[in-house]
Amino acid sequence: MRRKPTPEGWDEYDLETGAHSTYSLHYHLVLVVKYRREVFNEELRDFFREVVNGFADNYGVEIKNLEADRDHVHLLFKATPTTDLAKFINVPKGASARRIRNEYGDHIEDKRWGDSFWADSYCLISTGQVSLDVLKEYVENQRERDDE
Question: Which of 23, 76, 124, 147 has the greatest number of CB atoms lying within 10 Å of its CB?
């Protein structure tokens, strides 16, 4: 951990080191269900979390937080300079869609449009502009909104 100056004093700066690099790569990923269909509940969110955590290590990714609203999910994750972000994003979309269809087909049947589960697009934001604590709080509040 290195320290960085802030107006309030010094904060810890979460840096990783590689053979020839020092980096801090944190991202906020939002995946949306096709046509914003409201399919996520707590059980499906936990299943999706299990699927994503199951293959994140294969891509050099550490999942920091994952929450879902009824029609989209938020992932906060940490990557390495060699992480292929496009592959990491598209693999969970494909793998989770197949597993969700297999495990929760009855729950999502009337909400699906053909074979698609996820929208084709996604939103990926580097989190260097705000602290991870602020983002974690935002993502955690998505669940609270879902419970309302």
Answer: 76
